[in-house]
Structure formats: structure tokens, C-alpha cells
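Quick check before the chapter quiz. The format below is the same one you will see on the exam, so make sure you can read both the input and the output lines.
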Amino acid sequence: MKIIVLGAGLVGGPMAIDLNRDEKFEVTVADYSDGALNRLKDKCPELSIIRKDLSNSKDVTSLVRDYDLVVNAVPGFMGFETAKAIIKAEKNCACIAFYEEDPFELDQLAKQNDVTMIMDCGVYPGMGSALIMNAAQKLDKVESVLTFVGGLPEIREWPSEYKAVFSPIDVIEEYIRPARYIENGFEVVRPALSDPEYVFFPEIGTLEAFNTDGLRTLATTIDAPNLKEKTLRYPGHIEKMAVLRELGFFSKEDSIKIKSQKTSPLEITAQILFPNWKLNQGESDITIFKSIIEGTKDGRKMRYTIDMFDKYCPDTDVISMARTTGYTATLAIRMIADGLYSHKGISPPEYMGKYPECIDYMQKGLKERGVNWHISEETL
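Here is the expected output.
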């Protein structure tokens, strides 16, 4: 069975290597960067590589037609059009690209083309979403879901005290895209980085949490009056990013003229900021997740708590964000390949959570790779 991974970055590369472990798969990776492809080839010579500009959707459709399955690991700003191109090629897919558009806009097209596409298939949205749905189905009524999630360098280093553990341009999106959540049954829209609070985690200490647009499809797939997601960073990060945003450093408008050429502040900011955010070879990162689901069952108030804490693996030289995000997607594409999951159309990850056999499959596969999710239940 032939699989193509679109994107050879921090997460795409490890996904390709993980899929290559299966003898039944022939794995190819496509990317525009010779450097990323060559580094991946050095790590795993068995992989086939293709240098390709994936920003042209027609080229993507033509490219993936020669493969049985596709993994979409392009940056978020390319994700929606890439997903559409894959559907037009009539190929089943697992997608980790975090794009702004409503994924259900592609649902009818996917059904018409008999395509199974699991989107937002990462850590959260992703496995966390699937487990939230799994817990919600055990309740007669869900009252609230509160989720905290973050990917961080294990060691804080001044001045940023942050490293990008996935596409840096997608990190910026978290700070400028308005955040949606559900409160008392109504949708609320707040600026990103708003409503800061401190949260203590035994594994890492006190972190700061703030609103981002991470709730995604859970806002409609979970019937609850209160649903909220917050991103985690080391204390002080909110103020730094808010200052840059409010001063216009994250603006996408071509409003700056340099030697007769116009460019955007974001392009300049990226050139300065991203090298400082680069996670160096062998540098350890962590991923932390906590979700609290409360509701009622048989007249009793119940609480389910989902926890996950993961670190960079020096044995495989795979960062935690690639382990927690990437392995979720590679297991999802295996479920499609094995016929365990076959819903036609767009599938947010919480759809997988409706099936205990899918949850068992994913948890078992992640545990084998050292990623452990813990679920506890208590009566209030």
C-alpha cells in the first residue's frame, strides 16, 4: 500500500518514519525544502522523497493520485486547499494541518468522492478530542468541558523562553486568530491571549493559560452549555506576544516598503523571531494536556479527567509534539487502511471517540510508542 506524506517538517518527518515501520506500506514524502528532505533521508534511507511546491492545489491533486493514502502535514495556511485537492483526487487522508476555514465546508465534496478524511488529527484537536467525546458519551448530560494544552521547551531560555514545536507561522496564528468558546449555551468570541490565568501542573510547575481558537469542531459536536480550551505557556509569554501583536508585528498586510519592495510586518518578524524559536537538535520539549468533563449520569454528578504529559524521546530523537501529534495521525491512517474506520466525509477526531474499538486501537498504539493518556472517573 502506497502512502504519501505531504510535508517533511518537525511533525511530518517523524510521521513518515513511523509509517515506514510497517512492511505493508511504501512511504513517500513530498516537500519544497531540499534541506528537510535530505535530513529525513539521512535518518531513514528507505523513504522515497519528492521535492514539490505543495502550495499549488492542482499539482497536489495530480501528485497524490498515484498513492493509496495521504497524510496532510502542510502548514495551516495551506491546509484547507491541500485537503480539498486531496479529496478531488479521491484519496483517503489523515490531516494535521490547523487551518482557519470550517472543515465541514469540504464534507459534501468528500462524500461525493467517497473519501474518508480525518482532520485536526493531532494531540488537541486530535486524540484529546476523541477521548473527550468518549467520556461525554458515558454521561446522560454534559455540563462543561474545560481543556488546557501546550507544547513547550523543557528548559526556559531568555529572551523568548519559548521554542516552536510545530510550524512557527501556525504558532503566530494562535496569537492573532479570535478565540471561540461556549458559555451558558452561547458562543463567545474573545481576542486570542485573553482571560489569562495561572494553572499548576505537578510535572512542570505553574504555567499561564489563555484563550486560543482551539475548541474547533467540539463547539458543535459536543452538546454542552460550557466548552472552553486554553493554551499553556511559561509565565510572561502572554505579555510578550500581546505587545508584538498590538504594535503590528504580526500584521499580514504588505504595508512596509524596503528598497522599493513592499512586505508585511509578519514577514520581517518571522525572519527575526523564528531563528530564536528554533528547537535545536537534541533539545527536549514537553507536551501537556488536561481536560475536565463534568455532567450527570443516572442523577449523579460525575467528573472525567483526561491527562497526558510527554517529553522528547532521546532514543528515537523525536520531539514530543511529533510523538503526540504525529503518532495520532499515523495510527488514524492505519485504522483507515485496516478498515477499522471508514466514515465517509469529513471526520473531526471526536467522531473516532464514538467507537470504543477506535479508542482502544489508538491508546494501545500510542502506549507502544511511549505516549500515555490517563482517564479518571469520580462521583461529585
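If your answer matched, good. The chain has two domains: 2-123+321-372, 127-311.
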